[in-house]
Amino acid sequence: MDITDPFPKHKTEVDGILTVVDRLTKFAMFLPCRYHAKAAELAEVLYAGWIRTKGYPKKIVCDRDTRFMSDFWLALIKRWGSSLKPSSARHLQTDGQTERAHQTAQVLLRTLIRPDQKDWAERLPDVELAYNSSIHLALGISPFEFEHGSPVTLPLDMITPRTVESDDHLLFLRRMQELLVKARDQMAKTQQRMRQQANRQRLPCPFHAGDLVWVSAAEFSLEQDVSRKLLPKWMGPWPIIEPAGDAPEGPSFTIQVPSHLPVYPVFHCSKLALYTPADHDDFSGRRTQDPPSMDGFQERHHLPATLWQQAN
């Protein structure tokens, strides 16, 4: 699950969408919410929209939003009997199906809403129906048919009724089993194809604990008046403390970021670059490249002594 970027504020005060996607059936719900809602309010939205009809999930994949990582949310997940699986730090592919559902929902909304965009919340049920009744590439059938055993009945179907099939429960159970086998087979083929495509572009992770690495400057929040375009593309170098996760080679690493930088110190390996010192450093006195802190504070030892004396 994930929350989209803010939409125009609706008359009901909602300005965001909590998207929830079932990992097996790909059935999606697009639940209107307040984008900056607190953890308790988001839990109520999830309960009223998803859990009320689907039950408690076994696992929840989400990003590392502070609300989802809060003590309240972690305690609630435990009480539900569920487990939380946060995505890799700043690596949204972990929850890729939700991101794709986001994108599809936004495309559908653009075609349905009025020019003033004030009715986007009213159109979410239409978007949800269109999404779940469409053939899903990973399944070969629609999420609605996978979940309910038959395709959704649309108004046109009432005009031209389908051929009535036997209501024998054995035929129904056999059809459900066939759908499950077909969907799982299609999902396995799709995942294998996506894995092969990703592996063609992915190199072995070259980082180890103790290595000095550069960190992408895009991972740091900046002051309001600081232009990212005028900053270096990489910050550091800083040492790797340890791999983050079960795999020794990554895919994320804990970096020893200076304490004055308010950033979560775990970065995906795609955001890192190995530091290679020059054979003959003609600039031995140069310092590390630290981004400006959120409050403009820089530690004293990061300033040349002459500038520190002038400032005092």
UniProtKB/TrEMBL annotation:
Upper lineage ranks?
Eukaryota, Viridiplantae, Streptophyta, Charophyceae, Charales
Q: Which residues form the Integrase catalytic domain?
A: 1-151
Gene3D superfamilies for this protein: Ribonuclease H-like superfamily/Ribonuclease H
Please name the GO terms that the record assigns under molecular function: nucleic acid binding
User: What GO biological process term is on the record, naming one?
Assistant: DNA integration
Keywords tagged on the record: Coiled coil
Q: What is this protein called?
A: Integrase catalytic domain-containing protein
Give me the segments passing through the membrane.
Answer: none
Q: Which residues form a coiled coil?
A: 173-200
Q: Which domain of life is it from?
A: Eukaryota
